Amino acid sequence: MRIAGHTLGTPEQTVPEALTLFREAGLDAAEVIYQDGYRSGIATGNRAAAQEARRASDGEGIQIIGLTPYTTAINSLDQDEWTRAVDEFRGAIEAATIVGASRIRVYAGGWHPGDEDHDAHWGRLQDALETLAPTAADAGVMLCVENHFGTMTQTAADTAALVRAVGAPSVRVLYDQANLTYTHDEAWPEALRVQGDLIGHVHVKDLVFTDPDAPFRASETARVKAEERAVRSRVVGDGIVPWAGILPALKELGYDDVLSLEYEYRWHPQDLQPPAEGFRRGAQAVRRILQGVAA
């Protein structure tokens, strides 16, 4: 398996600078944020920025394997909002072809406690993915729906249900066990049981609970506000997520692709070591586990 750095962990670096940091930290590849206004990302619709990222990728020998958009309106009941969100994903697919990425992270719309008309929003979400799936397939790109709070696929079961409903090989699951652990949803054996055959991408990160009995709360999708958090982010290997069990199980399921270190330095720098050290240590921890699997 290849280990990628995620530019969520490099908010103070440009994309070329982040790629250099990843190479020096011993990583194999990169996942890059696709969003306006973020220093370590590619702005939406900006072909020149995508081309610059590709040149830097080629120069560093660090392939950009994935892009991470933040749009959540693909389940909107407002036709104009829905169309703009779908078009943003079309732009992400085009950018992926420029940088050489094979996967794009997908938030399954926006969804929070108290929201109404679940079936209608779910239908629009499915419509969006069914609309985008052929374009992604033609580009050789997977749309990977993440297990993520604040979306319609917080749980592994819901993520698998959506991907199965779409029924397209270009729409897969992005497995994030740390998210499932934080939200008190499926433990890893159950998560892999229900969605393991659908996984197209994996995020690797770690955490510890400050209060393991506190109910999960998040009023936003991209991050959890400080006053809502019941965890602290950690370098992989320093927390409670049992990667030593998860990674061999993924291998047994046939997943032998990219593991992306989603180092949450953009959101929670107070919890973490500086990116160069955090990525280096995280990659070492993952490689120790993988060496055990190979043995």
- Helix percentage range: 40-55%
| Main pleated-sheet profile | 8 strands, parallel, barrel
Question: Whole-Å distance between the termini?
Answer: 14 Å
Mean pLDDT: 97
For the biggest β-sheet, the strand order reads: 1-2-4-5-6-7-8-11
Overall strand count: 11
Number of helices: 9
**The CATH architecture:** Alpha-Beta Barrel
CATH topological fold name: TIM Barrel
Description:
With 295 residues, the protein is α/β, with parallel strands linked by helices. It has one domain (2-294): TIM Barrel. The protein has helices at 15-24, 47-60, 79-99, 118-139, 156-166, 177-182, 188-195, 243-253, 275-294; strands at 2-6, 29-34, 41-42, 63-69, 103-106, 142-146, 171-175, 199-204, 206-209, 231-234, 258-261. An 8-stranded parallel beta barrel has the order 1-2-4-5-6-7-8-11, surrounded by 6 helices. A two-stranded antiparallel sheet has the order 9-10. α2 packs parallel to α3 and α5 (156-166) packs parallel to α7 (188-195). The longest helix is centred in the middle third of the chain and has 22 residues, at 118-139. The chain is globular and about 45 Å long. It starts with a strand and ends with a helix. The model has no long low-confidence stretch (mean pLDDT 97).
